[in-house]
Amino acid sequence: MNRDKIAQMAAVTEAVYMNEFQKVQAILSREASLRSSLAQLRDQRHAAGSRQMQAIGADLAWQTWRDRSVQQLNLELARVMARKLESLDRVRAAFGRREAVRQLAQKSAEQKKRHRSGNGN
């Protein structure tokens, strides 16, 4: 395989890897956002128990809303986690292809260097 083809393969595999890596970064960002929202709702649990909220019955309404929100966030988090696993598999595969082409390019450069030095092995 000539050097130009290897260079083209390296450029393509690098682009594919970076594309898949960026996709997983977006998924990781969404996961962090969901986890943060869930943590905030859990931390606000105590606010609903105030006497004023209990007196007007708002604590029950808020608790219902909070529970529904937590459930929806957990469902979305489960979907994001599934997408993350799929995306990580694609990143691993792209990384493997990129590394294989990098090693091929390195061997090709070493062979060319040996050939130029007259060793030819």
Radius of gyration: 27 Å
**Form type:** rod-shaped
N/C terminus separation? 17 Å
Order of helices and strands: HHH
Continuous helix count: 3
Which class do the helix and strand fractions yield?
A: mainly alpha
Question: Largest sheet at a glance?
Answer: none
Mean pLDDT comes to 89
In terms of per-residue confidence, which ranges show pLDDT below 50 for 5 or more consecutive residues? Answer: none
How much of the sequence lies in strands comes to: under 5%
Task: Give the tally of β-strands.
Answer: 0
Helical fraction equals over 70%
How would you characterize the overall build of this protein?
This protein has helices at 3-43, 51-56, 58-116. The protein has 3 helices and no strands. Helix content is 88%, strand content 0%. The longest helix has 59 residues, at 58-116. The protein starts with a helix and ends in a 5-residue tail after the last helix. It is rod-shaped, with a radius of gyration of 27 Å.
Key phrases:
rod-shaped, mainly alpha, 88% helix, 121 residues, 3 helices
What's the layout of helices and strands?
Layout lengths: L2 H41 L7 H6 L1 H59 L5
Helix pairs in contact: 1-3
Question: What is the compact description of this entry?
Answer:
Helices cover 88% and strands 0% of the residues. It has 121 residues and is mainly alpha-helical.
